[in-house]
Write a structure and sequence with these properties.
This protein is an alpha/beta fold. The chain has helices at about 5-30, 45-55, 70-80, 110-125, 145-155, 170-180, 195-215, 225-235, 245-255; strands at about 35-45, 60-65, 85-90, 130-135, 160-165, 185, 190, 215-220, 245.
Length: about 270
């Protein structure tokens, strides 16, 4: 065999090997499914409605208002069920008539007061691994207090932050990122409007956003209609090619995709 024929023979064999290896690798790699995270806010005020959320299928995150009558019990039940617990942190809203509740952080607070309020709020919600804001359409647009807040959250090291995005002027997510806090932002409110038809509409929007950008975050509330709806639709997600994941997993996935734009859904005060 001449050297030329030998080289051609070797290259042909190697080429076939690499094609087979590449095909095997492609076949072995699972397709990347879009992911969604769902957070249910306002837990702790009403026992039965709150505990029903902790029994939902899958890693639905439970966001608990501080200093509420059932905060500790709901937090414990959620953690026992393997669900993430978030502190639903009350922040000052634009509407002065709407108080965010006990444990609110406002523009009137000094930095030291802010630190004390946050510490007390976290202490009232055991097992919290993250924070999302309750209301906050005023304070989340103020760089000074957002810088103080995120600097303080960063000292806890284990907490992520979800900007509930109650105003288009919110800089909360950007400030969290500047302080190295794992962060994402709400895309959809599931149940701003009552009724099953609205739930279906907003849920479809959630899935469509996830398919478009790879991930999406929804926030809902412990209304019986919302809980019953999620109980029905969440088991169908695998057949729709979408995964329900924890907020922490979604943030990691989002960072992996290096996505800067989290969503463009309009703000809503809740």
């Amino acid at each position: 065999m001449t050297r030329l024929k030998y080289c051609r023979s070797v290259c042909a064999r190697l080429g076939g090997f690499f094609v087979l290896a590449l095909s095997a690798a492609v076949c072995a790699a699972p397709p990347v499914s879009p992911v969604i995270a769902i957070i249910i806010d306002d837990l702790g005020q009403q026992r039965d409605y709150s505990l029903a959320v902790t029994r939902l299928p899958g890693p639905v995150a439970c966001s608990v208002l501080p200093h509420t009558p059932w905060a500790a019990q709901v937090s414990a039940a959620a953690a026992t069920s393997g669900k993430e617990v978030l502190l639903h942190l009350p922040l000052q809203a634009m509407e002065t008539s709407r108080l965010a509740g006990i444990g609110e952080i406002s523009l009137d607070n000094s930095r030291e007061e802010l630190q004390q309020i946050l510490a007390a709020d976290l202490a009232s919600v055991p097992n919290a691994v993250g924070i999302n804001n309750h209301m906050g359409s005023l304070i989340t647009r103020h760089p000074g207090h957002m810088d103080w807040l995120m600097a303080e959250i960063a000292t806890y090291q284990h907490l992520f932050f979800v900007d509930s995005y109650t105003t288009a002027q919110s800089i909360a997510a950007d400030m969290a990122a500047e302080h190295g806090i794992p962060v994402t932002r709400r895309n959809i409110f599931l149940d701003n409007e009552p009724g099953e038809e609205n739930l279906k509409h907003e849920y479809r929007r959630l899935l469509n956003i996830a398919r478009k950008q790879g991930f999406a975050v929804a926030i809902g509330h412990p209304y019986p209609e919302t809980t019953a709806f999620l109980q029905q639709v969440l088991p169908m997600l695998p057949d729709q090619g979408i995964r329900l994941v924890s907020v922490a997993e979604l943030i990691a996935y989002q960072q992996k995709l290096q996505t800067a734009k989290v969503g463009s859904i309009g703000p809503t005060e809740l």
